[in-house]
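Session log. Operator J.P. requested a structure for one protein chain; no other inputs attached. Running the standard single-chain path with token output.
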Amino acid sequence: MKQVLTISALIATTLAVFGGESSLTVTYQPLDGLGSGEITISQVTCHDWSSHSGAATAIGLISAANIPPTNNPKEATENLNLASVCGVRFYASDIGDPQAALGLTLDATKFVIPKRFDHPRENIIRSCLECLRLCLPEKLRDTPVTLKAADSDKPWLSEIVREFNAHDRRKVFHTPPA
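Structure written below.
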């Protein structure tokens, strides 16, 4: 009986520390247009396992894999989220912690475009930043984005991030070309 109580207490503590309950969270993702040559910025519902943590989880979920349901499961099983497959990640400070400094990071240290995609790199990054803009909570609306990138990518990425940081985030930053 003591073991059951100990295990129950351990599970309850773990759930409390790591956010507790899951729920559905809305984010935005830059999705490949399946051969159309376009990037589609789409609102996506995600199962968020840390929804009660106080963190802006919609930001991290921009990079979650997106394998859409299909009626042909033998053919359409690839991840369509360009942020995910190209290695673009976003991190935000814990907005539930009043002592935490506000921060947003674009981590492109693992940025690479798989051969199956032919979108210009600038359009992928701009689309990812538009997804970020769309799911920023008010508390982070004007927080500058910090860039982490490989030295070879810093020159072109820094310019896009600088442009994003100077942009009014209440207005559209990027519309993918049709």
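Operator note: The longest strand covers residues 23-32.
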